[in-house]
Amino acid sequence: MARTLPPVQAIRAEIDALFASDRDLVEVIEDVARLGARLIIQTAVEAEVDAFLGRARYQRATAVTTDAASSEESTVRPGHRNGHCPTTVKTTSGPITIARPKLRGTTDKFASRLFGTGVTRTHALETLLIASFVHGLSVRDVEGALADALGPEAALSKSTVSTICQAIVAEHDAWCRRDLTGVELDYLFLDASHFKMHDGSRAEPILAAWGITTAGKPVFAGLAAAGAESTDAWRDFLTDLTARGLHPSLLIVSDGAPGLISAAEQVFSRSLRQRCLVHRARKVLAKVSTGDQPEVKAAYWQIFDLSDLGDDVKPGQQLVDWVQRRIDTFAELWGGRYPAAVKCLLSDRQSLTTYLRFPIEHHKRVRHSNFIERTFGETRRRVKVIGRFPGETSCVSLVWAVLDRAARGWRGFTMTSTGLRILHDLRRALLHPPTQLHPTDDPPLAPVTEAA
Fold first, then answer.
1. Please, are residues 276 and 253 in contact by the beta-carbon 8 Å criterion?
2. 242-281: pLDDT as tens digits
3. CB atoms within 10 A of CB 410
4. Contact predicate 323/351, CB 8 Å
5. Quick one: 164 and 197 in the same domain?
6. Which residue would you say has higher pLDDT here, 96 or 142?
7. How many CB atoms lie within 10 A of CB 137?
8. 261 shares a domain with 124
9. 55 in Cβ contact with 117 (< 8 Å)
10. Phi, psi at residue 424, to the nearest 5°?
11. Residue-wise DSSP of 158-219
12. Contacts 24+ apart (CB under 8 A), 28-36
């Protein structure tokens, strides 16, 4: 008979199941926010019971040794867990149901500090999430925030809060230091999003990297705060990834930030580079009058539309040249009326068509970097009420928490036999070129002449 999952593990399983579904990411994140509230509150309540009994779940009382110098909360008490009963708590994200632990055989009555008398309405979701991530995962901050929301009598103990915070910190720190030697990427996506992290300063970037492995699987590779999107900042970020074992990818997809491009070309000199077509479209349209924007936008995307080529289209240099001729046609059509827009399009034009050398089935997903940008947008929307983070640690922690969970629901790439062959040929040509044969130092042989 299968053992029933503990409530905390059951909630985690629900979150993982959400990201494994094919639902829209925005809807999934909304549900995850509510499940996240349940997860944090459930963890807090279970930690309260551990502290009350002086032992963890499934641990016997006789196996626990008491320490005379320990606090009252670590004293081993008689009694045991006896299931759970559902308790509904009303939050600003709607009512959530918590599995409230029941105890039997205890000499002292257990009273949850989180669920004090009459506590049925609480801002526990905002309190715990903002205190955990925004206030830098400080034990004192979480403790004080709960007291503000629920009253002094409902404040969690230091040991309970510390248990929650340390678990989150440990998970993030381990992710930041993990070995990337086994990660081999075909595609590496680089992007940044700006958040206010320091008092009196403008919004500063959080640098992010994610990719698609040679097996077609998505992977969230790196995240770090930076003072600016400079070459030095991006180079340090990418160098850290390579120092932990990340191999060069075949293609790097990014926007047109000069510092990003310069750093990518320095650190991954053999990788090809693709400019995000969505970012370039925005820049082009920004130089076009409002009345003509719909027509120019349609003409822009028509450049990269391969549907009129039929099923015989093959990736490679010929396809690149064909689309480059379409860019020339666009320039001739609109250059007289909008020279600035055409100049923007023609700048670094070769990087707009690099993706055409890759498998056809990957084209629509490797010609822009909008997927991670969309997730960044969800993060920004959720922290609008905060205004400004008190520091880098809290900002990176929140962004990491959102992206790490979202990454579990990212779809991979389809790998066909034809596509695998194309990627193999590109890998051999770019990353593992054959060794050149050096000429010998011996003089050439004299031609043989026939005897007279």
1. yes
2. 999 999 999 999 998 999 999 999 999 999 999 999 999 9
3. 18
4. no
5. no
6. 96
7. 20
8. no
9. no
10. -65, -45
11. HHHHHHHHHHHHHHHHHHHH---TT--EEEEEEEEEEE--STT---EEEEEEEEEETTS-EE
12. 28/409, 29/378, 29/402, 29/406, 32/405, 33/93, 33/125, 33/382, 34/93, 34/94, 34/96, 34/125, 35/11, 36/125, 36/129
Hey, what are 341's tokens? 């827009």
What CA–CA distance (Å, rounded) separates 369 from 278? 8
- Residue spans of alpha helices (H) in 66-138: 124-129
Distance from C-alpha of 400 to C-alpha of 139, rounded to nearest angstrom:
20
209 in any annotated domain:
yes
Question: How many CB atoms within 10 Å of residue 86?
Answer: 8
Q: Which of 246, 256, 244 is nearest to 190 (CA)?
A: 256
From first CA to last CA, the distance across the chain in angstroms is 100
In this prediction, residue 29 carries a pLDDT of: 56
Give the pLDDT of residue 376.
67
Alpha carbon separation from 249 to 98, 209, 281 (Å, rounded): 45, 12, 25
Mean pLDDT for all residues in the chain: 76
Lowest mean pLDDT among 142-151, 188-197, 306-315: 142-151
Which carries the bigger pLDDT value, residue 94 or residue 427?
427
Measured between alpha carbons, how far is 77 from 312 in angstroms, rounded to an integer? 75
User: Which H or E run includes 80?
Assistant: strand 80-91
The pLDDT tens digits for 336-357 are 999 999 999 999 999 999 999 9
Q: Which domain holds residue 307?
A: 277-368
**Which range among 163-167, 185-189, 391-395 shows the weakest confidence by mean pLDDT?**
163-167
Counted domains in the chain: 3
Inside any domain, residue 423: no
Say if residue 149's pLDDT is above 50.
no
State the CATH number of the domain containing residue 237. Answer: 3.30.420
Look up residue 246 and give its two tokens: 């990340």
* Cβ atoms 149, 129 nearer than 8 A: no
Domain check: are 18 and 151 in the same one?
yes
| DSSP code of residue 250 | S
- For residue 167 the two structure tokens come to 């678990």
0.85 surpassed by pTM: no
Residue 156: is its pLDDT beyond 60? no
Collect contacts of 52-56 with beta carbons under 8 A, ≥24 apart.
52/77, 52/103, 52/110, 53/77, 53/79, 53/80, 53/81, 53/103, 53/106
